[in-house]
Write a structure and sequence with these properties.
Length: 219
């Protein structure tokens, strides 16, 4: 597949703290995975795991930490390009002694295309993807038929794709995009009790945004 020129993220003013930078320098070798053309061997990466999940856009990693702690048999590959969050999550992995999380600093499209075997992912977490509210930015929205088909290819049959958004027009958009593909069944659900509150979600709730959760199952 051609490399994407339109990005679904904007590298925000990356004010990485001293602690986050130090954590990155010290812990990347241990818990980070470089983008390459080498397919990831999930059982080898997470020897104790029974299931494998990808979290795309983990932000500051709050959900990653809590889900990893609650599910020691779930191996989580957490992907983002947000430098403060990468430093923070590495620090948290060490502090909480998590053996079931690895971190990637890369565009999720490239990771999926180059490093994830087809039919190998049990669960996918996409919590509060950038909503790109302006019409001229809609092409940046990560949820689109091409991306959904990429996820479908990488997921196991009956694999679970969880999405949450606090932007109602994006919720409507997500439903429309899934309406165009035949690889997933599902739609809106109640907020899953296990889904942790993230910083981004908290900010949305303080602005009285309505949060919508989706669950799509790979057919
Ligand atoms: C709005 S934030 C939400 C972060 C977090 N999930 C939360 O709920 O707080 C969206 C995140 O997705 C990341 N992101 C967007 N597109 C991405 C991509 N193609 N690959 C990796 N990360 C991406 C951004 O860098 C950002 O950190």
């Amino acid at each position: 597949m051609e490399s994407r020129t339109i990005k679904s993220f904007k590298l925000r003013g990356t004010r990485i703290t001293t602690a986050q930078g130090a954590a990155r320098d010290r812990l990347w070798k241990q818990f980070g995975i470089e983008l390459s053309n080498q397919v990831i061997d999930f059982p080898a990466l997470f020897p104790g795991a029974k299931k494998f999940a990808l979290e795309i856009g983990f932000g500051m990693g709050e959900a990653t930490l809590e889900i990893a702690e609650q599910n020691p048999e779930l191996g989580i590959l957490a992907i983002d390009v947000h430098q403060p969050g990468i430093g923070k999550l590495l620090a948290v992995i060490e502090e909480a002694q998590l053996s079931n999380v690895r971190v990637m600093d890369a565009d999720a499209h490239a990771v999926l295309q180059q490093m994830i075997e087809d039919g190998s992912v049990d669960a996918l977490h996409l919590f509060f993807p950038d909503p790109w509210p302006k019409t001229r930015h809609h092409k940046r929205r990560i949820v689109n038929p091409e991306f959904i088909e990429l996820l479908a290819r990488k997921m196991k049959t009956h694999g679970e794709l969880h999405i949450a958004t606090d932007w109602e027009p994006y919720a409507q958009w997500i439903e429309e995009q899934f309406g165009k593909v035949r690889t997933f069944s599902g739609g809106k659900i109640e907020r899953p009790a296990w889904r942790p509150l993230t910083r981004f979600e908290g900010q949305g709730l303080r602005k009285n945004h309505v949060v919508t959760d989706f669950l799509y199952i790979r057919n």
